[in-house]
Design brief:
By secondary structure, this protein is mostly helical. Helices cover 75% and strands 0% of the residues.
């Protein structure tokens, strides 16, 4: 076995152990720390696979931003006081029906298969995968990218409004 395979198995084992520890902890902050460990080990696997862009996204977005959001919510929510579901059967039925409709739509998208466009050739013009993703993102998918950025901005403003102290 070569060194790359051993390093891969090490980070895969760390990822699995971190995931198991995350779901078995009773303390929410400890579970979040184990989730960070899982995210970091997955990002190391991305580096081993040569996917630098996925590594950067994994570290910056998931291990950084999402975990800060999780810890922010954990600190805001009173975990000692259990809450009961206050919605009626109508709300449960509507949410179940909506979830089923969204699942069927997603299943139809995956059933269609991969797009039939031409596959990229072996000559990428000397560009790395980060440059190719960036060019494709800002040329072909500019409108959805901006829509997601506005959605994240609204979510951030909503979190700030919910977290500020009442006067």
């Amino acid at each position: 076995m070569n060194l790359g395979v051993l390093v891969f198995y090490f980070f895969a084992a760390v990822s699995v152990v971190g995931g198991i520890m995350m779901i078995t902890r009773k303390n929410a902050v400890h579970a979040a720390v184990y989730l960070v460990l899982t995210f970091v080990s997955i990002s190391a696997i991305y580096i081993l696979l040569g996917a630098e862009f996925l590594f950067a996204v994994q570290v910056l977005v998931y291990a950084g931003g999402i975990m800060v959001l999780f810890l922010f919510v954990i600190m805001l929510v009173n975990l000692d006081e259990p809450r009961r579901f206050s919605g009626g059967r109508l709300q449960l039925g509507v949410s179940t029906a909506l979830s089923l409709v969204l699942f069927v739509m997603l299943a139809r998208v995956f059933a269609r298969g991969a797009p039939s466009g031409p596959a990229p050739s072996g000559n990428l013009g000397g560009l790395g995968n980060i440059e190719l993703v960036g060019m494709n993102l800002y040329r072909s998918y500019l409108l959805p990218f901006e829509a997601v950025s506005l959605l994240l901005l609204v979510a951030m403003i909503g979190a700030i409004v919910l977290a500020r102290p009442r006067a």
